Amino acid sequence: MDGTRRWRDNVFVERLWRSLKYKEASLYAYETVHEAQERLAWYLTFHNQIPPHCALDEHAPDRVCWKNQPACPTAA
Description:
By secondary structure, this protein is mainly α. It has one domain. The termini are far apart. The protein contains three helices and no strands.
C-alpha cells in the first residue's frame, strides 16, 4: 500500500486531533508538562465515554466498541 487515495483511513484521526486542538489544547495555558498530560488524558476519556456521536447512532464510542466484547475473567 503506497498511501495514495487513502484519505478515509486518516479522516477519523484527523477529526480527533482537530477536536483536541480546538476544544482543549488551545484554550488552556498549561503550567507544566504533567498538567498538560493530565488535561489531555481527561479530554480523551471524556471524548470516548461521555458524548454521543452522530456517526455512531448517538452512542458514545466506548459503548459501541466494547458492547460485543466478552467479559474478562477475574483473578481468584
